[in-house]
């Protein structure tokens, strides 16, 4: 097996809203930790969003990956207008 740099997996970039505008994320690939951080949700909530069909995913090996653009679509589909609760 050749251990050159090209054979090594490329790590996902850490995403923060402080460093980029929202539009620059459109094609970003996210892991579950990044999705949970962006949406400020637990792993259980993320699993519920996926299992209920709200959020599409791509399984690669034993991990799931998500597109930032799908997060935006999910938020837009579920957007509600009206008075704030409480």
From TrEMBL:
Domain Helix-turn-helix: 34-79
Pfam families linked to this entry: HTH_17
Domain of life of the source: Bacteria
InterPro entries: DNA-bd_dom_put_sf, HTH_17
PANTHER family recorded: HELIX-TURN-HELIX DOMAIN-CONTAINING PROTEIN, PTHR34585
Protein name as catalogued: Helix-turn-helix domain-containing protein
Organism of derivation: Pedobacter montanisoli
């Amino acid at each position: 097996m050749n251990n050159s740099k090209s054979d090594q997996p490329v790590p996902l970039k850490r995403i923060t809203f402080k460093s980029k505008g929202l539009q620059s994320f459109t094609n970003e690939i996210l892991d579950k930790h990044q999705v949970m951080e962006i949406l400020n949700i637990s792993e259980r909530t993320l699993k519920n969003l996926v299992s209920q069909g709200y959020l599409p995913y791509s399984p690669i090996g034993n991990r799931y990956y998500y597109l930032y653009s799908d997060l935006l679509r999910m938020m837009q589909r579920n957007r509600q207008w009206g008075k704030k609760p409480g």
